[in-house]
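Folded chain entry —
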Amino acid sequence: MTGNHKGSWTIITILVIVVAAGLGVYYYYFHAKPTQEAPIEPPAVQKPPQAAEEIPPAVPPQKPVGEATPMVPAELNQSDEPVREWTKTLSPHPQFAEWLRNKNMIRRITAAVVNMAEGQSPKAHLNFLSPPLPFSVVKKEEGLYLDPKSYNRYNLVAEVFASLDAQGSVRVYKAFYKLFQTAYVDLGYPDRDFQDNVFRAIKVMLHAPVVEGEIEVEEGIVSYRMVDDHLEDLNEVQKHLIRMGPQNTQKIQAKLREMALALKLPENQLPKTKIYSINPK
């Protein structure tokens, strides 16, 4: 497990909030609450271009009957307020509107998606959220285990994410796609398509197993790590999903799957749900 031992940063995926493909995933930290926004920097690792999949064109959304459609700005530095206007009706949950008040959302989400597509933590770009309760473990005679009560810290995230209108989210994503692509180019990818990263990030998250049973951990030099090598060897994004607990993981993955299908990603290209059962000692 990554992070500081006293409260490693644990991240969860969700900011699919603004981007349709359900990504821009943000992460919670185990206990440390950031006091300043981290700068938006290019992802740490850049891999060579991969073959692009067949993707649907990014087309503007249809204007709702009887309602004025907010304008999509031409410049990234003018996009925050239009993004809020376009996305405010995607979920009835009041917390959703609070998250949308953060600045530079398109740049943040773009950088986070690129990180997630590589299986890396996007915490540097989405550090404006922190969990209401500290991370905890349970000590038993046979060892240390993740405290199942810690899963409840992510209930709000899973609830808000599950409440999103998938079709509406896709319309927003397509409407702002050119700005996402601009932000992607600004990160140093002039000849690649941002939507490839969206699909890759979705697949990374859908590959995370739904873990049934108690997860044993052990103390490392600076953090806890999972004793089960199969789980510990997963990438950062997948391990963060596991820390949300099986029920929340399933909610997140179900909505991601719904959004991927709304984006016309063929169902046979989506990883199937994997149940990973841990046998008690």
The chain is about 35% helix and 5% strand.
